[in-house]
Amino acid sequence: MKTRLLRLTPHENIYTLPNILTFSRLLAAPLVGYLVVHDHHAWAIGLFAYAGITDLVDGWIARKWKLQTVVGTVIDPMADKTLMTVLVGVLAWKGAMPLWLAGIILSRDVLLGLAAIYYRYISLPPPKTFSRYWDFSLPSAEVHPTGISKINTALQLGLIGWTVGMPLMVGYGWGEALESGLVGMQ
Fold this sequence. Notes:
Layout: H1 2-8, H2 17-37, H3 41-64, H4 70-93, H5 99-123, H6 130-133, H7 147-171, H8 175-185
Helix pairs in contact: 2-3, 2-4, 3-7, 4-5, 4-7, 7-8
């Protein structure tokens, strides 16, 4: 039965360069949060920039060399949301971001995460088992972000990058002007 099931269910190669780059962004997210908590802002902004560059590069590589995978369409936004969630939580905890704004961003991301979990389940080919749910080589639902979602993510990443980099800018004398913009939001 298991051999027959493997023949009927298509698997895709998930070990592609774009997926590896995306997975590295998932691993980088908690490290960026750790660096911000411990006030290593230069390293944090460098790793944040790495995440942004690999976000652009992995999609380009996947499209250029036809390496798109269903798992890539899922873990790419997951990496973005993980980085966003970690940094929003850390910045709010440190008082660098207003709590009301952090609450809005985190609530939206939690709802999107729950929707993704449900969507994966309902689109998984039968039989729906725990091991098959977590087997990402089994394609199910593809995620295609909308234009407004991409704009929202870009604005959020811009705000987060600005806020993470703020302590570095203060050292160069730009802090008062930039800080007044963030204080105005509170």
